[in-house]
Specification:
Blueprint (H helix, E strand, L loop, with lengths): L6 H5 L4 H14 L10 E9 L11 H7 L3 E8 L3 E7 L7 E2 L2 E2 H18 L3 E8 L2 E8 L2 H12 L25 E6 L7 H11 L3 E8 L1 H5 L7 E3 L6 E3 L2 H25 L3 E6 L5 H15 L1
Parallel strand pairs: 3-6, 3-8, 8-9, 9-12
Antiparallel strand pairs: 1-2, 4-5, 6-7, 10-11
Helix pairs in contact: 2-4, 4-5
């Protein structure tokens, strides 16, 4: 396993764009080249060679016919439009070791954006905050990608999940079928997350959910703690971990099975990710869903 795919290494890198590039470079070097296709190139026009042009772009067949140097210009054809939807409610502040769920979500989103941009896709960002939805419409250029990285760096989880009245932002700008990638811990009080997923289904887009859970959350492995606080409601509960752990894990298994079934009922691609795991499987899941959309 490449060390570049270890979240602990990535979290230590301050430049989000550099970290995303390292992740994708490590990921792509570990899979067969034929499984990752580059941007679609569509022939545009010929133009006369100018000093400084890349000689690899010379069209030698045109030279043979005309005895002149011509550059074959191509334009990038944007393959699909991808919207990254990020849950920035307070529960994403949950921490396991040195990192929070939001830390993991930030780097996962950056890596997906970098990989999508590399594939020639338009990338957009929608952040679900307490006060509403922050949105960046999908575009395919490096400056847009840099702005998207900047916004990811600024994410600070707080408050509760976005209210349905703000979902109108999701309907803006969508002209064709898109891939919607929702990164969340699926924490909800009154079915607000699944209400959002129902809304996304009405848009007739392909939906991919990455469900983030920490290791200590999966196993109730909180050493030395007996009092737990809900990060969004502020409610607290005291438990004896030793006696509660078996029942907790049984309930967790039941909850995850229910969640998978709910996603299946909605024809949503669902993937559970532990935040102490590398990103490579998530990137593979993304490529599989992206290729499905293109078919």
């Amino acid at each position: 396993m490449s060390k570049l795919l270890d979240p602990k290494v990535m979290m230590a890198i301050k430049e989000l764009s550099l970290s995303a590039k390292m992740t994708i470079d490590g990921f792509m070097s570990g899979i067969h080249k034929n499984t990752v296709k580059g941007p679609g190139l569509e022939f545009s026009q010929y133009r006369s060679y100018q000093p400084g042009d890349d000689l690899r772009s010379l069209d030698w067949k045109m030279f043979a016919r005309s005895d002149r140097y011509y550059i074959r210009e191509s334009e990038v054809e944007t393959n699909i439009s991808i919207r990254l939807l990020i849950d920035a409610s307070a529960s994403m502040n949950h921490q396991d070791g040195e990192n929070t769920k939001m830390d993991y979500a930030r780097y996962l989103a950056a890596s997906l954006a970098y990989l999508g941009n590399l594939q020639g896709d338009a990338i957009g960002l929608y952040v679900f905050k307490d006060a509403g939805i922050f949105s960046m419409v999908a575009k395919q250029d490096f400056q847009h990608l840099a702005r998207l990285f900047y916004q990811l760096e600024q994410l600070k989880p707080e408050g509760t999940f976005t209210k349905p009245i703000n979902y109108k932002e999701l309907y803006a700008g969508a002209q064709k079928r898109e891939l919607l990638i929702f990164i969340t811990d699926l924490y909800e009080v009154n079915q607000e997350i699944f209400n959002l997923l129902n809304t996304l289904n009405t848009l007739k887009h392909e939906v991919l959910v990455f469900h983030l859970m920490s290791g200590n959350e999966m196993k109730l492995d909180f050493k030395g703690y007996t009092t737990f606080e809900d990060l969004e409601t502020g409610k607290t509960i005291q438990i004896d971990q030793e006696t509660a752990r078996a029942a907790y894990q049984e309930n967790m298994t039941h909850y995850l099975e229910q969640t998978r079934n709910k996603m299946l009922d909605r024809r949503i691609s669902y993937h559970l990710i532990q935040t102490d795991q590398p990103l490579d499987q998530a990137l593979r899941d993304f490529l599989n869903q992206r290729n499905k959309l293109k078919i």
